[in-house]
Design goal:
about 110 residues
């Protein structure tokens, strides 16, 4: 019986360590998404302004500025999508670890 409790305790500590290491990763990934959201808003506004300028002035330079600003927004959105997927993956791992903790607890109570 003592051996079983020791194994459960070791397993629980391992899960707790992994959970503790995930928390800062999740926080950093969420912060990255937040920053990218701000940048997307800013550059989307810039792209809209550049689009209007290119329509009014009809110069090659203004058209190039609009294209560049629009590409920047697309790139930022792709980065945001990658970081959002990372957040989802990390949260999935966290949920799995929490499920394992619950399984250990209910398993230990059953014994």
């Amino acid at each position: 019986m003592a051996r079983i409790i020791s194994r459960l305790s070791n397993r629980r500590r391992g899960i707790e360590r992994r959970l503790a290491s995930l928390a800062p990763e999740i926080g950093a990934a969420r912060e990255e998404v937040r920053v990218l959201d701000e940048q997307i808003r800013h550059f989307a506004d810039s792209a809209d302004e550049a689009r209007l300028r290119s329509m009014v002035s009809e110069t090659p330079q203004s058209t190039n500025e609009h294209r560049h600003a629009a590409r920047t927004v697309v790139t930022l959105q792709k980065d945001r999508d990658r970081w959002s997927a990372r957040v989802i993956e990390l949260e999935r791992k966290q949920d799995e670890l929490l499920d394992q903790m619950l399984d250990l607890r209910t398993g230990a109570e059953a014994q």
